């Protein structure tokens, strides 16, 4: 993986308690899975960072290499990879996402 991309990702997840790599932006998601994750995160009324992987091919591949996860969106909380859409929704439905967000100081 390109060192510049690795550093960018590390800085993003270090400087944002909650970070999502997605297709599109929170205001204009460009896939249903990204839209679902944004909706869940917004339901907590939290601030979160985001990057549109469609704008940067190196980041699009780099985030997959970084997490060893083949799809986006990808959610990071407190610097840790949480998962994609299905895992985020499952954690939300079980009440575990709220706990993770609280522990990270995001809520």
CATH names the topology as: Glutaredoxin
The number of strands is: 6
Arithmetic mean of pLDDT: 97
The rounded distance between the terminal residues' Cα atoms is 33 Å
Radius of gyration: 13 Å
Low-confidence stretches: none
Order of helices and strands: HEEEHEHEEHH
Summarize the structure.
The chain contains 5 helices and 6 strands. The protein has 107 residues and is an alpha+beta fold. It has a single domain, classed as Glutaredoxin (3-Layer(aba) Sandwich), CATH 3.40.30.10.
Characteristics:
107 residues; alpha+beta; two-stranded antiparallel sheet; globular
What this model shows, in words?
The chain has a single domain, classed as 3-Layer(aba) Sandwich (Glutaredoxin), CATH 3.40.30. The protein is 50% helix and 20% strand. It is built from five helices and six strands, in the order αβββαβαββαα. The strands form two sheets. The chain has a four-stranded mixed β-sheet, with helices on both faces. The longest helix has 13 residues, at 3-15. The model has no long low-confidence stretch (mean pLDDT 97).
């Amino acid at each position: 993986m390109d060192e510049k991309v690795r550093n960018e990702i590390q800085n993003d997840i270090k400087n944002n308690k909650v970070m999502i790599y997605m297709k599109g932006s929170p205001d204009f998601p460009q896939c249903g899975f990204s839209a679902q994750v944004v909706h869940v995160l917004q339901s907590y009324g939290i601030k979160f960072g985001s990057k549109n992987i469609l704008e940067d091919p190196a980041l699009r591949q780099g985030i997959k290499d970084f997490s060893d996860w083949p799809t986006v969106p990808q959610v990071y909380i407190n610097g840790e990879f949480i998962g994609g859409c299905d895992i985020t929704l499952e954690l939300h439905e079980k009440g575990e996402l709220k706990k993770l967000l609280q522990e990270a100081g995001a809520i």
